[in-house]
Every structure is written in structure tokens, then in C-alpha cells.
Amino acid sequence: MTADDRGVATAWTASIVAVLIGAVAFVFWLGAAVTTRHRAEAAADLAALAAASHATDGPGVACERARQVAVRMAVTLLTCRWERGDALVEVRSEPSGHLATIGQAEARARAGPVDRPP
Predict the structure, then answer these.
(1) Domains held by the chain: number
(2) Domain membership of residue 42 as a residue range
(3) Tell me, what DSSP letter sits at residue 96?
């Protein structure tokens, strides 16, 4: 080993550790974004089903039920409307914890009465 080679292993090791930490952070960020999106989709589906199941009670009651489901799923109900007997619901999900850099996820769902054929 020559005098010029001293400290090269330390520099390489530090570089590799920095790359690994960056990769782990990226995978964590990506997983949190996917989780936020899935939570929004599930909440939209459940809220639309809740609204459709209360369709006979009127649109106001049905949309209130969708709002209650959205609150319990920790999302924000953006819209709840009716189109030809189907409940159309849109929700927004915020990332959990300190992951505000991920952004929000929005999802839409549609559900209709059980007794009507598709």
C-alpha cells in the first residue's frame, strides 16, 4: 500500500453507506406513498357502499353515512353526489405521521343499489 492509497477505503465505505441510506429512505418514502393511496381507495369504496346502502333514506342521509365512514377511515370526504341512482364519492387521504412531503392521495368510487343488475 502506498502513501497515496491511505484513506481510500474510508472514502469508499462512506460513499457506500450514503448510497444505502438513500436507497432505504427512498423505499420507505415509496411505501408510505403507496399506503396512503391504498387507504384513500379503500375509504372511497367503503364510503360509496355505505351511501348506496342508505339510498332509500334519501341522498342527504346516505351522504351523511358516507361522511361518517370517511371520518372513521381518517380521510376527508370531498364530494358525495348521486347520478342515476348511483352514489359517487370522492375522498382525500393525508399521509400519516411526519410524511407531509409525500402529498395527498385522492380516490373516487361508485356504488349503486343492490337490487339493480349491473
Answers:
(1) 1
(2) 3-111
(3) S
Distance CA 54, CA 96 (A): 30
pTM: 0.76
C-alpha 23/C-alpha 29 separation (Å) is 10
The CA distance from 91 to 64, in Å, is 14
The sign of the CA dihedral 97, 98, 102, 108 is positive
Res. 95 pLDDT band, cuts 50 70 90? confident
Using CA atoms, how far apart are residues 10 and 16, in angstroms rounded to an integer?
Answer: 10
> What percentage of the chain exceeds 70 in pLDDT?
86
Q: How far apart are CA 55 and CA 58, in angstroms?
A: 6
Q: 117 in a domain, yes or no? A: no
